[in-house]
Write a structure and sequence with these properties.
With 422 residues, this protein is mainly alpha-helical. The chain is 55% helix and 4% strand. Among the domains are: 2-137 and 152-210, no CATH class; 246-296, no CATH class. It is built from 19 helices and 2 strands.
Length: 422
Amino acid sequence: KRSDAELVLVKIARALLDGVGVTAEAVEQFEQGPPMETQVNVHAVSPQHEDLVHGDEKQGVDSTRDLRVLIHALFDKFCGKPGGESLPSELGGVFDTIAQGESVALDGIPDEELRIDLENLFVHLGLVKTEIEEEEESEDDDEEVVEGKNDETNCEVTMGYGLPDGDKTELSSTEKKVLTLLEECKRRKSGETSVSNVSNNPLHKEAVKKRPVQGPAIGPFPGDMATNHSLAESSSEDEGPAPVGSDFAKKMRHKHLAPSNEDIQAMAEQRRLQLADVAAGGDGTEIAAAVAGGREEWMVTPGEHDFLKGIKSGGGLKSRQFKNEKTRGDRAFAEAPMNPKMRAEIEAISQAHAEARGPSLMEEHRRKKAEAKEAERMAGAKEWKWSRDKHLDEGRRVDKKALNMIMGGASSLLKEKFHGSF
């Protein structure tokens, strides 16, 4: 038990030292000292150069720690503002873009304070401000091209921050700082709040507490491969539906089919109506069917219909009468009487319109055709032209008076000899 307690104390002390920046690897390197080649080189150089070398190493460690302190201070500063929770993820994307060798512009950030802080941070990292050219197509495509001007696209110059292009040592140092901040953004996004030179040992991961997340969780960072795929799947889908007839299925069925307060009230109302129907002399089945949503008796039982009774109830058979009348062109409704003064005014307007308009083509054609027929008839008046409509019964008409004189009393004599209704 004593050894276990001592081991726990050692682990706690190690985690606390990791929290303040004193890692186990740094302690081991300090105890072991520099390698033999480094020792030989150190002894070979002057004491002033030795102090300069140790000073550069110490300055590199301090600068890395300062960068982590700065980035976490920036996160804490804007944590309470709208959109502050997504700041680690967004800055992680920015640093990832810069690490890939591209430039990032800060002109589109609406928060002026955040933009100024990021500019100061980029300057502290050693990033260089360069020009970013964004090509935009010309909108005046329909205008004519003016002589002396080229049809080149309009270029807008935007300033952005990127890695330096000069010395390789400076480039590698700046890139290392950017990757350090990218790692801190990932840790802050995952919930870790340590600002020290944290290693990937399991003791530190157990000691560091996760930060509670308020609201919906942010999606995984694109560069972070450690994603939890189990959150996207449902355990109920993995298990599947319960087999029919099993105890679990019966429990779920009773759980889902438990009557609610509305169902209980509906059942009580149905029972009350059934009792009232039975008290009135009925059997209560129709009420139960109506309340339960079923069909009543008049819907199920077919009715009786007698064809002859239906005919007699309608007044008996009547012969149909047909009228051989043409109703084409008749108005469906009678015209309302119009004021004579208004009618005369309408007719005058119609006549003036017809006179001003002149005859239509059809009217002109009919007039010319009638005039041609009349001229042809007058030109050939001496010649006899037979017309069926005009000359078929011409000269064959019999005068009724002359017919009665000729027949005399033949009609009375015929009636005496022949019997009939004619």
